[in-house]
Write a structure and sequence with these properties.
eight-stranded antiparallel β-barrel; mainly beta; 139 residues
């Protein structure tokens, strides 16, 4: 369950806010929920600063731990709520592109975010394998 949580966090925080000057990138800031098989897992707050996108964990669902006990490096034993896992993503070729933190390994992985209707799509690539996840707005 912990591994699934960390993968969800990684995917969730790949959803990067958009620049107002490009309508396709607009309206991705705010809170987004990562879900799997109909269950809400975590929520992330995405925000823009200086034209770049950032994200932090804002809510945990279910019985996830409060601290990141299994994390390595600088994230070990740190509070999960408020943890920044997306930093400095840029808008390029119709998507937010950058890296997302996978705290369990203390590594950053390539990711991209884009809007598809009311959903935010996140693609994370780990070891040559890419997965796409859907995120929904936090209400």
């Amino acid at each position: 369950m912990y591994r699934m949580f960390m993968i969800i966090i990684l995917i969730m925080f790949m959803a990067i806010p958009s620049m107002a000057r490009d309508s396709r990138a607009a309206n991705v800031t705010g809170e987004w929920i990562i879900y799997e098989q109909g269950l809400d897992l975590v929520a992330a707050r995405l925000y823009q600063r200086g034209g770049k996108l950032y994200g932090a964990i804002s809510h945990l669902y279910g019985d996830f731990p409060v601290r990141c006990y299994h994390c390595k490096g600088s994230k070990h034993n740190r509070r999960i709520l408020g943890m920044r896992i997306i930093k400095g993503m840029i808008w390029s070729k119709g998507r937010w592109r950058g890296k997302v933190l996978y705290p369990a390994e203390d590594r950053w992985y390539p990711c991209s975010l884009w809007r598809q209707g009311s959903r935010l799509m996140a693609e994370v690539c780990i070891g040559g394998s890419c997965k796409i996840r859907k995120l929904k707005r936090f209400r």
